[in-house]
Specification:
Membrane topology: Single-pass membrane protein
Number of strands: 0
Number of helices: 3
Helix content: over 70%
Radius of gyration: 22 Å
Keywords: Cell membrane, Membrane, Protein transport, Translocation, Transmembrane, Transmembrane helix, Transport
Protein name: Sec-independent protein translocase protein TatA
Number of domains: 1
Shape: flat
Structural class: mainly alpha
GO molecular function, one term: protein transmembrane transporter activity
Order of helices and strands: HHH
Pfam families: TatA_B_E (PF02416)
């Protein structure tokens, strides 16, 4: 099992390499815009999942009360 996990281990050198590649691909000016878009997307996803949880709970209560 450890043989499968070992290649997936990400350390400091791998993170530095990923950051350098991202800088080369997008440039320093584009990264804040990308992160802003990513953050707003995550926020919208969390808000939608919270709204979905609230809506599902009220539907379940209506179904139970409707059966009685």
């Amino acid at each position: 099992m450890n043989a499968f996990i070992l290649p997936l281990a990400i350390g400091a050198p791998q993170i530095i390499l990923i950051v350098v590649v991202i800088l080369l691909l997008f440039g320093g000016r584009k990264i804040p815009e990308l992160m802003r878009g990513l953050g707003s997307g995550i926020k919208e996803f969390k808000d939608a999942s919270k709204d979905d949880d609230k809506g599902a709970g009220s539907d379940d209560k209506n179904k139970v009360s409707g059966e009685n």
